From TrEMBL:
Keyword check for Membrane: yes
Pfam families noted in UniProt: AA_permease_2 (PF13520)
One GO cellular component term: membrane
Record's subcellular location: Membrane
Keywords, ordered alphabetically: Membrane, Transmembrane, Transmembrane helix, Transport
Protein name: Amino acid permease
PANTHER family: CATIONIC AMINO ACID TRANSPORTER 4 (PTHR43243:SF4), INNER MEMBRANE TRANSPORTER YGJI-RELATED (PTHR43243)
Length: 524
């Protein structure tokens, strides 16, 4: 029956399953070991990484200039709308599964399946994207130690590379690079060339993080906490060192911040206010991660109280840090010189504190490591929920008897993600991650509005303010960001969703546990 496609899972049943034997069918359930502090650090660990260490430079150089500060504010506000909606759902439905579980309780099984399938783009492709950025910093750091890795083994297949004669670094060949070398009297054809074979460095990072996650969530939390403190120390060091330098040399900031919003070149998105908005869409990737906190709800000690604190707390802290870093970075360095893989390291060199460059690289490596950890933690726990509902084979929900982690899902996702990270370029990975995440945000915002209308009396330890305004604004902003992405990214999204629908109608619908019981048409 068509009505079964939109059958909803009772919120009471969801909570009951999480509290009393809703494990893997063998008596094994996820341990509740995470405190509010763990959740905030988990969120910071997921958010701070690719955005602050990589994307700040390219977004400033190509789109916004010093106005990148405004772009981060715009993107932060947009994420706050979604974050408020996530916080309400996480406190109301405090179990593993994130947007998938929220969709199942509010919009029905088919929508929940679409969300779960779509979230693979966020967590798995997101982890692969970060792994590629991680490999760049690792190779750069090792090069400083005179340890050189052949460029064929830290670049995706087919990527054309050339060795910069000034820095000896291997850089990707682009039209812009060719024009730059030509203007300097350098014939790019005479330089050493290489072609990527497989990003073995990125793939190895994914495998290592997967092993850590299989060992256990508490051990992962300790590892994550250590890394988060390390990279926060590095970020704060950059803010303090760069800020101190600019206070002593205000003329440098005055020169680099003028004009604060460069004039538009005549093309949409290239500087001016359109450039600021385009940069906001690009750096949206920098905020991906706060929603990953909600996937650990079933492992939180006091989820109703701690989940909103973890989600919103990590989002606010990271937004403040992004604004400070982008402002100081564009004050230290002319924005046109920031289209590099390691903009923070370039910025710290301007201060004369070159001894901090290696520290910055170590912090970037640590930061990107923690992002991979949280991304790879999230997807297996969504599979755990989906297998418990019968939408995918039960083996995906199997919990290790000793470590009490969904180890089958973790290993499978880790292997696929490692292959993806090694085989695909960062540009394609990043856009697929963004569009998948934005779609999930749209559905979650709509779900909060729906639940307020249909179940106004439902207990909500945390309530999203100004409903329906906040959910509507969240949906509109996310739709706008999706519309700004490349048309080919949309084609890939549609193709991915069509494959997911085939899987649903050939396997999931037939094996759904909800469809084998009386249909529930409300969350009560």
């Amino acid at each position: 029956m068509a009505s079964n496609l939109f059958a909803k899972k009772s919120i009471n049943k969801l909570i009951q399953e999480s509290e009393g034997g809703g494990g893997d069918g063998h008596g094994h359930t996820l341990k509740r070991t995470l405190s509010a502090t763990n959740l905030i650090l988990l969120g910071i660990g997921a958010i701070i990484g690719t955005g602050i260490f990589v994307l700040t430079g390219s977004a400033a150089a190509q789109f916004a200039g010093p106005g990148l500060v405004i772009s981060f504010i715009v993107a932060g506000i947009a994420c706050a709308f979604a974050g408020l909606c996530y916080a309400e759902f996480a406190s109301m439905i405090p179990i593993a599964g994130s947007a998938y579980t929220y969709g199942y309780a509010t919009l029905g099984e088919l929508i929940a399946w679409i969300i779960g399938w779509d979230l693979i783009l966020e967590y798995m492709f997101g982890a692969a994207t970060v792994a590629v950025g991680w490999s760049g910093y690792v190779v750069s750091f090792l090069r400083d130690l005179n340890i050189n890795i052949a460029p064929e083994w830290w670049n995706a297949p087919g990527i054309s590379l050339v060795q910069d004669p000034k820095t000896n670094a291997w850089v990707q060949v682009t039209d812009q690079l060719t024009q730059q070398f030509t203007s300097q009297g350098i014939d790019i054809a005479t330089l050493p060339h290489a072609t990527g074979v497989f990003n073995l460095v990125a793939a190895s990072a994914i495998i290592l993080i997967t092993v850590i996650l299989v060992i256990g969530i508490q051990e992962s939390a300790r590892f994550n906490n250590l890394i988060v403190f390390m990279k926060l120390f590095v970020v704060l060091t950059f803010i303090l060192a760069g800020g101190y330098y600019l206070l002593r040399n205000p003329e440098v900031a005055a020169q680099n911040w003028t004009p604060f919003i460069p004039d538009n070149t005549g093309e949409f998105g290239h500087y001016g206010w359109s450039g600021i908005m385009r940069a906001a869409g690009v750096i949206f990737f920098a905020y991906i991660g706060f929603d990953a906190v909600s996937t650990a709800a079933q492992e939180a000690k006091n989820p109703q109280r701690d989940m909103p604190v973890g989600i919103l707390g990590s989002l606010v802290i990271c937004t403040i840090l992004y604004i400070l870093v982008s402002g100081i970075l564009t004050g230290l360095v002319d924005y046109r010189q920031l289209n590099v893989a390691e903009p923070i390291a370039i910025g710290i060199e301007v201060t004369g504190y070159s001894v901090l460059r290696d520290l910055i690289k170590i912090g970037a490596i640590a930061g990107l490591s923690s992002v991979m950890l949280v991304m790879l933690l999230g997807q297996p726990r969504i599979f755990y929920s989906m297998s418990r509902d019968g939408l995918i084979p039960s083996i995906f929900g199997k919990v290790h008897p000793k470590f009490q982690t969904p180890y089958i899902s973790s290993i499978l996702i880790g292997v696929i993600c490692a292959i993806t990270a090694g085989a695909l370029p960062i540009a394609q990975l990043g856009e697929m991650t963004s569009i998948g995440t934005l779609l999930a945000f749209v559905i979650v915002c709509g779900g909060v509005w729906y639940m307020r209308v249909h179940e106004p009396e439902r207990a909500r330890p945390f309530r999203t303010p100004w409903v329906p305004l906040v959910p509507i604004l969240g949906m509109l902003v996310c739709f706008a960001m999706m519309a700004s992405l490349n048309i080919h990214t949309w084609y890939r999204l549609i193709g991915w969703l069509l494959v997911g629908l085939v899987v649903y109608f050939t396997y999931s619908r037939k094996n759904s546990k909800l469809n084998k019981t009386p249909v529930v048409h409300s969350g009560k």
